[in-house]
Amino acid sequence: PPRSTLFPYTTLFRSCHILNNFLRCSAYENVIFCWVMHEQSIIDGILSRLDTTGSTVHAISLIADAPAVRDRLAGDISRGLRSADVVERSLARLPLYEQLGTIKIDTTRQSVQDTAAQIKAFCCKGTDT
Q1: What is the spatial distance between Cα 48 and Cα 54, in angstroms, rounded to a whole number?
Q2: Are 79 and 63 in contact (CB under 8 A)?
Q3: How far apart are CA 83 and CA 77, in angstroms?
Q4: Which residue ranges of the chain lie beneath pLDDT 70?
Q5: Distance (Å, rounded) from C-alpha 129 to C-alpha 127?
């Protein structure tokens, strides 16, 4: 098969295997899996392959407006972390995130620390943590 077909399947399979290992490990109270997913079918595919027995799953999408995405990606490009073609691809996908069946957290005007605190507050509702 073409590499573009093989790579996502292989990555998905490996990721689910690794995630299931973390979920089964009693040493971890929380497991956060962070990956850019712009299609509900990708999220559903991953969740269907996980043993979430005894777990609570929170599907959260971190979103931002177009100027913020452009600025953040420009910083990554200038540091050599991404290629310039990522900007248009990413901007074209922004509307797709709104269609996901996830909790949305708008990170446009938030620091990384503020975003992490918001995720923690959401995930720890009703617990002593």
Answers
A1: 15
A2: no
A3: 6
A4: 1-10, 126-129
A5: 5
